[in-house]
């Protein structure tokens, strides 16, 4: 059974956390992405709950967690600090694994670099490492075009645009390559998403507004001036990357050269799966997690 509780962080943020499994069991932490919520991990957590204490916070900005309105509240340091404090508050020692998808993966990459002592291993699902993402945003026109939506999300009218017609544009993000709603997005799941988005979209969109990692434009080319010293983006932990190869926003070229930044790397490419692989292939994701946690 999924239980819910709230964590109060020192900076005033309150994180709503979904959890299951024995309180004293090794912990596994799951971080969701945009425009999702912690509930996407329920099936996976329940399957692992016989051996692990599974925890999935709604990231800041996502109801019912705190959703500050200021863009600066969504800088990388605040997002990683939330999860670092959560890990410390929920048990002793490192977690067995930190698992992140999309923006949750971005937070996971950063935390694994900055606070590796908080986890034994890292699992990232369709979320680019900052080193390869920066390279592709600067040099690859195909990835620049695929990521153009990020600039759209930064527009001041993005909330209104995405909320119009009962959040039709957000729901459309889930359409498959044929333009159809996928079978996994049934009426019940659609309602869960709509209930989440009805609390407001500013926090969700502020992730994009707070980050310089988006395609360059004539009015905003900040990404072209960025560079990362290798030691500041190198993950030294055992790392599993699961990648749906049909991701239309994050192209498989983001995996090229990843070993330069992640020496202990295991990549599982999944042909035919998209960005939404957690929904599409839950059994396969669970299988790969089980192998890592074995």
- Number of separate strands: 8
User: How much helical structure, as a percent, in the residues?
Assistant: 25-40%
Radius of gyration (Å): 18 Å
Which strands sit side by side, in order, in the main sheet? 1-2-4-3-5-6-7-8
Output the number of helix runs. 11
Provide the residue-averaged pLDDT. 97
Determine the CATH topology: Rossmann fold
* Cα distance spanning the termini: 23 Å
- Level-1 CATH class name: Alpha Beta
Rough outline: globular
Reported for the largest beta sheet, the result is:
8 strands, mixed
Number of self-contained structural domains: 1
| Pattern of helices and strands | EEEHEHEHEHHHHHHEEHH
Provide the CATH architecture. 3-Layer(aba) Sandwich
Query: What class, by secondary structure content?
Result: alpha/beta
User: How would you name the CATH homologous superfamily?
Assistant: Alpha/Beta hydrolase fold, catalytic domain
Q: Give the low-pLDDT segments.
A: none
Topology record:
Blueprint: E1 3-8, E2 14-20, E3 27-31, H1 42-48, E4 53-57, H2 76-89, E5 97-101, H3 103-114, E6 122-125, H4 130-139, H5 141-146, H6 149-153, H7 158-172, H8 187-197, H9 202-210, E7 239-244, E8 265-270, H10 277-280, H11 282-293
Parallel strand pairs: 3-4, 3-5, 5-6, 6-7, 7-8
Antiparallel strand pairs: 1-2, 2-4
A few lines on this structure:
It is built from 11 helices and 8 strands. With 294 residues, the protein is an alpha/beta fold. The mean pLDDT is 97.
């Amino acid at each position: 059974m999924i239980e819910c509780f709230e964590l109060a962080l020192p900076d005033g943020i309150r994180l709503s956390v979904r959890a299951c499994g024995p309180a004293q069991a090794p912990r596994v932490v799951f971080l969701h992405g945009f425009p999702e919520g912690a509930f996407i991990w329920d099936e996976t957590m329940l399957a692992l709950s016989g051996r692990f204490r599974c925890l999935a916070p709604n990231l800041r900005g996502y109801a019912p967690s705190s959703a500050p309105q200021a863009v600066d509240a969504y800088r990388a340091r605040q997002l990683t600090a939330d999860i670092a404090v959560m890990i410390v508050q929920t048990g002793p020692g490192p977690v067995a694994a930190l698992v992140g998808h999309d923006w949750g993966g971005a937070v996971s990459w950063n935390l694994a670099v900055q606070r590796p002592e908080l986890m034994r291993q890292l699992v990232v699902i369709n979320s680019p490492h900052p080193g390869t993402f920066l390279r592709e945003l600067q040099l690859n026109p195909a990835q620049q075009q695929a990521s153009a939506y990020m600039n759209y999300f930064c527009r001041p009218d993005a909330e209104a645009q995405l909320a119009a017609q009962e959040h039709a544009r957000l729901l459309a993000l889930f359409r498959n390559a044929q333009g159809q709603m996928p079978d996994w997005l049934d009426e019940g799941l659609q309602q869960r998403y709509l209930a989440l988005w009805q609390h407001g979209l500013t926090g969700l969109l502020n992730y994009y507004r707070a980050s310089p990692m988006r395609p360059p434009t004539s009015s905003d080319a900040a990404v072209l001036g960025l560079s990362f010293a290798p030691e500041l983006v190198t993950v030294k932990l055992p790392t599993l990357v699961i990648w749906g190869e049909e991701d239309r926003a994050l192209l498989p070229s983001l995996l090229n050269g990843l070993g330069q930044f992640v020496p202990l790397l295991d990549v599982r490419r999944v042909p035919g799966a998209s960005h939404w692989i957690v929904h599409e292939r839950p059994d396969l994701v669970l299988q790969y997690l089980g192998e890592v946690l074995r």
